[in-house]
Amino acid sequence: MGEFTLSCPVPITQSPTILMAHGSGGTMMHRLLETMFLPAFQNDELLAQHDGASFNINGARLAFTTDSFVVRPLFFPGGDIGSLAVNGTVNDLAMCGARPLYLSAGFILEEGLPMDSLERVVASMRAAAETAGVHIVTGDTKVVDKGKGDGLYINTSGIGVVEHDLTIAPQSVRPGDSVILSGDIGRHGMAVMAVREGLEFESQIESDCAPLASPVLALLDAGIAVRCLRDLTRGGLATTLVEIARSARLHIHIHEDAIPVLEDVRGACEILGLDPMYVANEGRFIAFVPPEDRDRALDILGASAAHIGDVTEANDSLVTLKSTIGATRIVDMLSGEQLPRIC
Amino acid sequence: MKYIDEYRDAQAVRRFARAIERITTREWQIMEVCGGQTHAIVKFGIDELLPPQITLLHGPGCPVCVTPVELIDKAVEIASRPNVIFTSFGDMLRVPGTRGDLFAAKAGGGDVRIVYSPLDALRLAQANPDKQVVFFAVGFETTAPANAMAVYQAARQNVTNFSILVSHVLVPPAIEAILGSPDNRVQGFLAAGHVCAVVGYEEYYPLAAKYHVPFVVTGFEPLDILQGVYMLTRQLESGRAEVENQYARCVARQGNRPAQAIVSDVFQIVPRKWRGIGEIPRSGLGLRPAYAQFDAERRFDLVEYTAEESPDCISGEVLQGKVKPNQCPAFGTLCTPEHPLGATMVSNEGACAAYYRYRRLELQPHG
């Protein structure tokens, strides 16, 4: 088809300015990475597009990652920006199959931030670091004018050591692999949304914020041939599955009724017209394992883990879902943030 | 989850699908009017369970889809002004006008906020007396009562910095426009349950009689929709054209009288332009003269916009059930959710977006 002029809906993917959707984990963000950052910095480690980079130094295999935290509110049921900042980076290292060791912490503080808020955040970081078995060994502090920050932003970077020979990456996923989800989804996003928007539900939804290194290392120590790991943060389970199906150039088929979602989270999502599959998590991951290792992996991860689907032969890079009523449909990435519906 | 899972029970769903198959002897074209129903049909894959003789056509019931592009432009203009807090339900923020969407207005420095109720917007106005707070009042009969209540409360409490940008539309006039079209294909309607919960279903009796088409007031869960299709098919097969109520657990024939009272106190019936269809007489709600001071279009002295849809977009025909989304040559190629040519590809509830998101595996564009 030749050229044509648009006189209605303008394609907003080519925005001349940064939009919130560029940070949402959806297609807008992926396009930003693909058109801006990857070509600018390209190297093999970056192009692997994993949660962190892995490389060899003097015989040791290391994993390295970084993450910035801009959550509002700073404190929410089940966690705060401090525990999030430690666990987020610990989890990115864990998803490389690494044992997390050392973290850095950079603080961007807004003028006027109450000192006791900072104290609470720092105490929470210390506790989270102890739980995860990591040390915060270097850091930085900057202060910005009042109104130029949301109280407090934190960046953490982390180094871990890889103590196995597996290549944990989408490229290692094979047809027939089982997809295992480590626990119920959607809690973190709904907990934060409830506080941020002043939504009141019958019971309080707590964030699932947690370090994931122990369960991952338990899988590796037990000799499970883990093919790929990914923690479910922005964009939720659906986005993560689509990312992996695309990178692996395979088809993933999942079963909606196998995906654990807490009653309260489902209820809150129903009310707001949101799909828990796209809601953020901070303490959940999916593991791709060979079918013969599936039951052992489930045993190790405990009762909250579930086998939600399988990788199939088709090389269409798609994710499909068998709905609760038995029909099959596509699972896609959202273009931006999930928005509450009108009615 | 109680009162949800019962209506998504896989066994019961299959029983209903079989029952529909048993009573279907010939081809029927059925339209579900509401975008929420379209979304549920495609998300759960309900149409896959129906016999091949039954075609579901997706109607003009997505408020995001039918809001005219000029109004989006007006919203963007108001939201971009200083000292304005522009509030809206979430899914209106991504609908592009001719000069970008409300997200872009926010990125440009506009104070654009998602609210969950127009009363939240009113509270925002009370908390920010030095700002103009505007609520984007779109939607069908379902959202009208709460929007009317916000204006009514603003008047009663003398909140002078609150206004609404109104584009309310009404379902029955749109149905009549579809039925009156010479190339209409629709033989029966699943009427939107939540609209009827507010306004009742008296209005459908004259339509059923005049055009000899059956109506079934239908809910939004898979079993609701299948039961609605079953009741409608039974009517079609026996040549009846009656108004029936599948959604009796929520809908009374007379509707919700207090809600109707507040709507008619604040709003009056006006002609309204529908995106993709054009102007339909007596098809919308506008503020009554007594509440004109709360009309954002007056308050902000806006220039008149006119905007045309893309010539490649046939969303008007999709909204009237004349073609299926995948029968559009642009579907999935020139037109995707990230690059929408028309409103139906924008909203989650839009028929094209629903097809794209859930069904493009088996639905390749024609041509």
Give the topology.
The complex is a heterodimer of chains A (343) and B (367).
Chain A: H1 27-41, H2 44-47, E1 53-57, E2 60-69, E3 75-76, E4 79-80, H3 81-94, E5 98-110, H4 115-132, E6 135-144, E7 152-162, E8 178-181, H5 187-197, H6 213-221, E9 228-231, H7 236-248, E10 251-255, H8 263-272, E11 285-289, H9 294-301, E12 306-312, E13 319-322, E14 328-331
Parallel strand pairs in A: 5-6, 10-13
Antiparallel strand pairs in A: 1-2, 2-7, 3-4, 5-7, 8-11, 8-12, 9-11, 10-12, 13-14
Chain B: H1 10-23, E1 28-34, H2 35-44, E2 54-61, H3 63-66, H4 69-79, E3 84-88, H5 102-107, E4 111-114, H6 118-127, E5 132-139, H7 144-156, E6 162-169, H8 171-180, E7 188-192, H9 193-199, H10 204-211, E8 215-218, H11 222-237, E9 243-245, H12 257-266, E10 267-274, E11 278-287, H13 296-299, H14 315-319, H15 351-359
Parallel strand pairs in B: 1-2, 1-7, 3-4, 3-5, 5-6, 7-8, 8-9
Antiparallel strand pairs in B: 6-11, 10-11
Helix pairs in contact in B: 1-11, 2-15, 6-7, 7-12
Structure overview:
The complex is a heterodimer of chains A (343) and B (367). Chain A is built from nine helices and 14 strands. Chain A has 343 residues and is α+β, with helices and mostly antiparallel strands. Chain A folds into two domains: 6-162, 60s Ribosomal Protein L30, Chain: A; 170-331, Phosphoribosyl-aminoimidazole Synthetase, Chain A, domain 2, CATH 3.90.650. Chain A has a seven-stranded mixed beta sheet with strand order 9-11-8-12-10-13-14, with helices on both faces. In chain A, helix 3 packs parallel to helix 4 and helix 3 packs parallel to helix 6. The two termini of chain A are 37 Å apart. The model of chain A is unreliable at 1-12 (pLDDT under 50). Chain B is α/β, with parallel strands linked by helices. Chain B has two domains: 5-61 and 174-245, 3-Layer(aba) Sandwich (Rossmann fold), CATH 3.40.50.11750; 64-170 and 255-299, Rossmann fold (3-Layer(aba) Sandwich). Chain B has helices at residues 10-23, 35-44, 63-66, 69-79, 102-107, 118-127, 144-156, 171-180, 193-199, 204-211, 222-237, 257-266, 296-299, 315-319, 351-359, and strands spanning 28-34, 54-61, 84-88, 111-114, 132-139, 162-169, 188-192, 215-218, 243-245, 267-274, 278-287. In chain B, strands 4-3-5-6-11-10 form a six-stranded mixed beta sheet, sandwiched between helices. In chain B, strands 2-1-7-8-9 form a five-stranded parallel beta sheet. In chain B, helix 2 (35-44) links the parallel strand 1 (28-34) and strand 2. The longest helix of chain B has 16 residues, at 222-237. The N and C termini of chain B lie far apart (44 Å). Classes of the chains: A alpha+beta (343), B alpha/beta (367).
